[in-house]
């Protein structure tokens, strides 16, 4: 039975880490525990449960800033933002839904979202969580309090440790407070769809749209196999796959740009424009990667392949042909979700294709046994790995925070 | 008075050997500068109150040369000061008597424009505006636009994480850089990031951006380029108080409008700039707001009307909308010339750079007036109203005994005031040497030690840009020592299950 520590204050959190440090007992850090299956299993009997470090500390809509304890449920934060017609601009989807069956929407905590540096379709325009974290407070593996950043939009005071903590999976410090930039929701949005079966021509269509002056805020390709799951009339009537392009902003501007996109994309296929409500539904579908949601047992293996966007179409076609998997593209081709039905991760093949395109591939979902032998995250090159190891060692010298979560000892040097 | 690390006599004694080694690495004529009169142009950066001749200056031409120089410096324990265009305002490129200043200005080529990925690959000595110049024929531009953009280098922008007037909508340098090639002090060449959006491992790109030359020397940069908005129009709005102006800014943002630019000036700044450039600014208002909307014509026309209406509702006593591109540029000419305009009415000025939560604006401006009286020096304010980044310009006369010291104290008091209301020391100019000794106002020793532990991971011997950013450099041994707290089996206060 695991020893679970549940601090309720930052001071208690420091005491808990202090205990782990003194007892040389590694801890697995969790918020609500919805992303535990992402990354490698942390082999320890002690769990540091941060879910009681919860609550919004301040939310000032006119200042575009929200600050909360790291264990605050994402659903609470999103509800508070929605009340003021605001949002996280980086549009995180329901990532926990990719790891479990029947996940509720907006599962997880704000701390977990930052620690995993999540982002949705709008990333192609506005970046990921790391671009919106203004500051944090944490306890490092040295059991020392430290903070960086602040609550203002523009800040170059000292090294930007907020970036470092974003996407560090709790391996450098345990955050108890995070402060993020928020943005107003746009007045309206529209989505232009273009019928497109083949990922290569979809890639070309998305590249053309991104190069245009229409300020496309999201660009995705949904294959014919998944369009029916969209549950939007017309989309399925068209038959076949489709490219979706979103524009957002004031009404007259959205209308003008959507029309321009329809014209520009006509050579690629039949075009159609969805207004606000269907547009929302479609992008929630893409953000949540709906067609591939579920547990590893029921929904198979899931890869997240990140490449320079313009090469996404070619890479996607090659991966689908080579693996026989299903795929969906987001970030104008910069992100390829690849679902495999068998038990073979095909990691060497997939990583080679990604690397040759100047990208990388992470195994987002796989049974724990498979993650024992296949690195979840693509290995850094050795020079960067050396620096990363030094940073880890300087922040967590005894290796007590989420050890081996990113790279298990037996897999060091693999996954290149 | 600012203290820099003592020059290392041992290094100074080896100067001849060091020069010979550098000449071997950089055979080109003029690649190694050693004479005092030629070193003179490098004695300071944009923070001209501090000057120091470098031991020598080298101008490498390619990555291999940079790697060889740094490897030599690492082996022989010679300190290094990286330098871009030298426009920085916080003394980040201030030389040291015992250090080699490495100027990166021969790295001035645009290497590749990848239109399909909307990325430009350039060398670090290319100017900020140079990137836009290289892509504008296809309707693209590079978004961050510090006011020194005509001269400042993209490498320097990365060192300082530079902002500009459009950063609320388009982000800072850190949000627009996709990748770098960087040489470590050990002479190792790293490639971090690229044209894709994810990078594996810790976010080193995010740490390097804004690290003020303390972690390595960037030799290649990949940035995101954006389509230039179809059009832009600006509004000039006058208010009877800065508080009213601030409330109007809050109302615009609360209405869901994020203008491309949102700048404010106080009465002394309005008067100084109007006298200088005759932009047609009203002289009978206490605060002037310059709001710019950019995007498709239909969007701009629609939003400019909405902003105009909000301004009227929030008590604007003066309102003018640009009808032509010439008029828009005229509106901006005052704001963009605010610094030289102050230079005309005061022998010297010092530009501060704190950021505050916008809602505290009126209070901070009032506090600044108090400080102005106390220190007996005038102050004019221009600020990026959208993101709360203030640029108070303290007016003084360096030829008057004690004036510089008074100005520095005044500046420090302003920054303390900013930090006191939840703000920060620097919004976009960096810490450098200028604000180094104020870091303790914002950070605890442990906060700073964690930053220094990043430094340790890159540069254990502290050879890169020493004396900058951190008030006290802790030794590596001290940073690594684990001050293990008392260990207890049980913490009765922590709920356990």
Short description:
The complex is a heterodimer of chains A (416) and B (497). With 416 residues, chain A is α+β, with helices and mostly antiparallel strands.
Structure commentary:
The complex is a heterodimer of chains A (416) and B (497). With 416 residues, chain A is α+β, with helices and mostly antiparallel strands. Chain A has three domains: 1-185 and 379-416, Uridine Diphospho-n-acetylenolpyruvylglucosamine Reductase, domain 3, CATH 3.30.465; 188-287, Alpha-Beta Plaits, CATH 3.30.70.2190; 290-371, Alpha-Beta Plaits (2-Layer Sandwich), CATH 3.30.70. Chain A is built from 14 helices and 18 strands. The longest helix of chain A has 15 residues, at 251-265. Chain A is globular, with a radius of gyration of 21 Å. With 497 residues, chain B is an alpha+beta fold. Helices cover 36% and strands 19% of the residues of chain B. In chain B, the strands form four sheets. Chain B has a seven-stranded antiparallel sheet with strand order 15-12-14-13-17-18-16, sandwiched between helices. A five-stranded antiparallel sheet of chain B has the order 5-6-10-8-9. Chain B has a four-stranded mixed sheet with strand order 1-2-4-3. The model of chain B has no long low-confidence stretch (mean pLDDT 94). Classes of the chains: A alpha+beta (416), B alpha+beta (497). Chains A and B meet through β1, α1, α4, β8 and α5 of A and β9, α9, α10, α12 and α18 of B.
**Biggest sheet layout of chain A:** 8 strands, antiparallel
Describe the global form of chain A.
globular
What fraction of the residues of chain A are assigned to beta strands by DSSP? Answer: 15-25%
- Under CATH, the topology of the largest domain in chain B is which? Uridine Diphospho-n-acetylenolpyruvylglucosamine Reductase, domain 3
Distance between the termini of chain B: 56 Å
Radius of gyration of chain B: 24 Å
Strand order of the largest sheet of chain B: 15-12-14-13-17-18-16
Please, what is the average pLDDT of chain B?
Answer: 94
**What is the number of helices of chain B?**
19
Mean pLDDT of chain A: 96
Radius of gyration of chain A: 21 Å
Q: List low-confidence stretches of chain A.
A: none
Strand content of chain B: 15-25%
CATH architecture of the largest domain in chain B: 2-Layer Sandwich
Total number of strands of chain B? 18
